[in-house]
Amino acid sequence: MQQKIVYTSGIKTTEQANKMETILKEMIGVYDANVDLSNGHISVEFETPANLNSIEKEIYDSGFKVLY
User: Fold this and answer.
1) Which residues pair with 42 in a beta bridge?
2) Residue 28's CB: how many other CB atoms inside 10 A?
3) Closest CA to 24 of 57, 66, 2, 1
4) Given this model, what pLDDT does residue 15 score?
5) Alpha helix (H) ranges present in 5-49?
6) What domains, with CATH codes, occur in the chain?
7) pTM of the shown model
8) Which residue, 14, 21, 45, 51, is the most exposed by fewest CB within 10 angstroms?
9) Strands of 41-46's sheet, edge to edge?
10) pLDDT tens over the chain, length 68 residues
């Protein structure tokens, strides 16, 4: 299992954070996702078949920018 931190912009409210966490947790292979509004990042625990590219794409497709 891997744990990565993805820095984002555009997630401003608790509602947006909860929605993003739910979307990521529904992905096959993602075990946990936590949005940190104060630091502007998402911590994700995952394993195959999920990967960092698919997680970043899901964030982007949800309307938020992936910084790095």
Assistant:
1) 6, 35
2) 10
3) 57
4) 97
5) 14-25
6) 2-66 (3.30.70.100)
7) 0.90
8) 14
9) 30-36, 41-46, 2-9, 65-66
10) 999 999 999 999 999 999 999 999 999 999 999 999 999 999 999 999 999 999 999 999 999 999 98
